[in-house]
Amino acid sequence: MSEAEAQTRAISDMISIHGTSAKAVAITFDDGPNPEFTPQMLDIFREEEGRATFYMTGEQIARYPDTARLVQETGHEIGNHTYTHPHLTELDEEAVRAELVRTGDLIRETVGVQAATFRPPYLATDAQVERIARELGYAVIGGVNGAARDWEMPGADHILEASLAVAEPGSFLLFHDGYGDRSQTVEAVRALVRTLKKEGYVFVTASELLAMES
Ligand SMILES: [Zn+2]
Predict the structure, then answer these.
(1) Is residue 78 helix, strand or coil?
(2) Among the options 18, 30, 76, 81, which is catalytic?
């Protein structure tokens, strides 16, 4: 972690775990919707029962609105992941606001709901980004399993083990259903969900997890 990243983390209100004794986790996917991989993630949660959260970019929703609607219709949560996937910490206030507003508007036009949670691309956030997100009504969501690095395709076993190692009640777990070949993520998340289910966990959306009593 660079010094700048460390400072960002230190001042960040990004939520990676919500204090609760309930055996519940929020499994989340970034960078979709993706017509090939998003439906495979939905299959996992239909087969094993539970709900997930999909942090979509405006660009991907504009390309694949039917996939976005499928996510909504099958009971999952759609969150805001900006329109163009920039490093928000490098943008001025107006540009940050535009990224969030434009995407929120498109989500509402496409699936008819107001997104309530937001994940910054690259988890790059600072006080300005978080203030704007809060003003627009978003909770800023991180993830506990950054070491899984599923976007780098480190192998399904690595993604699974690095996620299991840090999963605990109230965790937000971060994966990707877009941006490249996500077949390792599909395999790892299927195994993760089966394993955690056997341990008594349930799979809830980000907003549901945030609403759980501690
Ligand atoms: Zn992303």
Answers:
(1) strand
(2) 30
6-15: burial string, b at 16+ Cβ within 10 Å, e else: eebeeebebb
Structural domains for the chain: 3-199 (3.20.20.370)
Q: Is the peptide bond before 65 cis (omega within 30 degrees of 0)?
A: no
pLDDT digits (tens, 9 = 90+) for 5-34: 554 554 578 999 999 999 999 999 999 999
Q: Give the distance (Å) from ligand 1 centre to CA of residue 32.
A: 9
Q: How far is CA 140 from the centre of its chain?
A: 10
Q: What is the Å distance from ligand 1's center to 30 Cα?
A: 5
At 127, the pLDDT band (50, 70, 90 cuts) reads very high
- 3-class DSSP string for 170-189: CEEEEEECCCCCCHHHHHHH
Residue 176 appears among annotated catalytic residues: yes
Residue 18 bears catalytic tag: no
Distances from the Cα of 112 to the Cα of 89, 108, 186, angstroms: 29, 4, 28
Residue 27 · residue 52 · CB < 8 Å: yes
User: Rounded mean pLDDT of 174-178?
Assistant: 97
Q: What is the mean pLDDT of residues 76-92?
A: 98
Residues 114 and 41: their CA atoms lie apart, in Å, by 22
